[in-house]
C-alpha cells in the first residue's frame, strides 16, 4: 500500500520560512515525479511545484523565487522550502506523486496547514 506522509507546516509571520516534508512508502518514486498542491479556503486546489525524475522542477508563478522543491531518492522524500512567506500563501498543502511517470498524479498526502499571519 502506497502512503505519502507529510510533516512540517504551522503558523509563521509574513516574511518567515517553513519547510514541508513528504515521505513515501510502499513504492519508490525515483522513476516518477513528486510535487505539492495547496488549497486555500473557498478556492480550488492549485499546483505549487513539482520535481521530475531527472530533477527538473516546475513552479507556479506566484511562488517562483521564494519556494524551492527538492527530493531525496534515498529517503523517498520530497521537500518544499518556503521562504518570504506571504499571507496569501495560507492554505492546506498537499503532496502528491506518481512513481511511474512525470505527468499524472496518483497518490496524495494527508494535507498540512500553513498559516501566514500579516
State which percent range the strand residues make up. over 45%
What low-confidence regions span 5 or more consecutive residues with pLDDT below 50? none
* Bulk shape: globular
Number of helices: 0
Order of helices and strands: EEEEEEEEEEE
Please state the average pLDDT score. 97
* Helix percentage range: under 10%
Distance between the termini: 40 Å
How big is the Rg? 13 Å
Work out the number of β strands: 11
Protein structure class: mainly beta
For the sheet with most strands, the description reads:
7 strands, mixed
Report on the architecture of this protein:
With 118 residues, the chain is mainly β. It is built from no helices and eleven strands. A hairpin with a 4-residue loop joins strand 7 (67-72) and strand 8 (77-82). The chain is globular.
Amino acid at each position: 500500500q502506497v502512503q505519502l506522509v507529510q510533516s512540517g507546516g504551522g503558523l509563521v509571520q509574513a516574511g518567515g520560512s517553513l519547510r514541508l516534508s513528504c515521505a513515501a512508502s510502499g513504492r519508490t518514486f525515483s522513476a516518477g515525479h513528486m510535487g505539492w498542491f495547496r488549497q486555500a479556503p473557498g478556492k480550488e486546489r492549485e499546483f505549487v511545484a513539482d520535481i521530475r525524475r531527472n530533477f527538473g522542477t516546475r513552479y507556479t508563478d506566484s511562488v517562483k523565487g521564494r519556494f524551492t522543491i527538492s527530493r531525496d531518492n534515498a529517503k523517498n522524500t520530497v521537500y518544499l522550502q518556503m521562504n518570504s512567506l506571504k499571507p496569501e500563501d495560507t492554505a492546506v498543502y498537499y503532496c502528491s506523486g506518481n512513481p511511474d511517470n512525470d505527468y499524472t498524479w496518483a497518490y496524495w498526502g494527508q494535507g498540512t496547514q500553513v498559516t501566514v499571519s500579516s
